[in-house]
Records
---
Amino acid sequence: MFKTGDYIHYSTNGLCRVAEVTTLDFDGADKSRLYYRLIPVDGKRSTIFTPVDNTKVAMRLAMTREEAEALIDSMPGIETLLIPDEKTREQIYRNALLSQDGRSWVQIIKTLYRRRQIRLAQGRKATSTDEKYLRSAEELLYSELALALGMHKEEMEGYIVKRLETEKV
């Protein structure tokens, strides 16, 4: 069970702070069931109430500083996603996003950067589906890394590039 003040990753909603563990106080609510009251870190969405014992939605603690640094350091060795055919492409992206695994998010980003480069070299644009999943993966990854490292999300891409270049030297 998470504690008040914990930062958790809640499904595809991303990072949330556990504001409290409480019961719901309205007619018809089961007064014996505990709920998390979650405040999305990005502030773009309303408060989320979810049962503590919810097994339908994936929830996990946010990365620690050590986990974030280890993930960044491992990025050069993370392979792109294997896409057997175009029909399964979007489902593979969706599953990787839902996995709540930073490595999977890196795989999406690397896959879509490479795919974009190939399409541009062919004189074609990136697809709207690719761009949607790229933005989603970057949002999930960069916001979680930023929280763990005490930085702003907008700084993450530059920080990652600089850190990986420094390690090569």
Note: The chain has two domains: 7-61, 65-168.
---
Amino acid sequence: MRLAAVSARILLPIVLLGLAACAPAPIYKTAPGTVAATPMQVGQSPEQYARGQVIWGGRVVGVRNLPDHSEIEILAYPLDASQRPKFGGGASGRFIAVLAGYAEPMNYPNGAPITVDGQLAGSRAGKVGEADYVFPLVQATQSHVWTDQEMRSGRPNVSFGVGLGVGIR
């Protein structure tokens, strides 16, 4: 009995360390003073967060190309330690990522997971359906659309169970 307790105390930290080592590093460097507020919170009082640095992510809602820049509307979700959007919980508002030049809509398909690094650049009143909405604007310096494989990578692929296996020789 004591041997099992000692083994569990030794093995558990090793297993947890191994699982943590599987998680990819964040893709963007978080600067000191990076805004921790959600897009919904910033939309409620944008002047409080003026010119703040953010790393936000979520799902692409749509792309709008204008003569000198593009805008990507994003439904925000919290990010994991690797800065991938976590879709398990509720959304945390919407925001518009402003990109210099032309953004090919096929590179930003609706529903795609995305992470954006940039600086808050005010807000704009708009609508979500028929409802009025205030969208924080993020002047994006970097954006990353996550592939299905990237979204799955770093997640523990460990399962436990009891069963019977049959092998053929």
Note: The two ends are 37 Å apart (CA to CA).
---
Amino acid sequence: MIDIAGRDVDVPLSASGERQAEALGRWFAAMPEGARPNIVLSSPYLRARHTAALIEAEGGVEPAARTRVDERLREKEFGIVDRLTRVGIEQKYPEQAEMRARIGKFYYRPPGGESWCDVILRLRSALDTISLHHSGPEKRVLIVAHQVIVLCLRYLLEGMTEAQILAIDAAGDVANCGVTAYSINPEIGRDGELQLRTYNFVAPLEEAGAPVTTRPDPPVAAR
């Protein structure tokens, strides 16, 4: 079992996480006028809100931008397997370990928790909200969230299959404060479509001398 005294939602940023967020904020701040984010959406988890606040404090967003918390951007919920490692699940809930192995991580829903598909369903709603309220050439949206959220957003925005997104997940963890960015490509589709520009981009951290870490959020070991 992963030793977390309280709720995962209340886990704070580590000292390394603070340095990473500050470095990312300075990188955004160095962007030319009209390029920095002017809409900030954050997971309600403490570490995500703190990351967004540090980015803002470093001048990484437009002055008028204020962080809006959206619970649909929260981390995947793990239910009864929360805080358990893979070995812990096999020992405490062998039937759940067997079910997960049979169904696969994309569709497996632990009792009281969520599958990746459940996360994707709430993210569809979040994307609809962004499209309705924050679309347009002058809107630059920064989302501060978690590894599964980043991956599920890629699945949605790029129209991936289960196999494609799980292959990306298997290739490596999403780095803390790694940047995944999209921009409108007017040459795609009738009205232009979002196109991936960068994934897991950590140069801002490396340039600032901040540590680059890929250790997942604590419960991710149970995925």
Note: DSSP finds eight helices and five strands in the chain.
---
Amino acid sequence: MSSNPNCYVDGKALYERIAATEEFGIGVQRLLKGAQKALMCAEKDPMTCHRAILVCQNLRPIGA
């Protein structure tokens, strides 16, 4: 997650703010480069994972 304190309110992550950071954009580019191999999640329910909630939502426009 982001180290930017503006991305949190009362300790809760604000995904829209995180997605708008330069740090997130760099991470997405690294992910796309590495995704040629594999992308996995170890969560019991992947739909509650930040990868599904935050990352996948922001990859959709890139891959569309």
Note: The helical segments are 15-19, 22-34, 50-63.
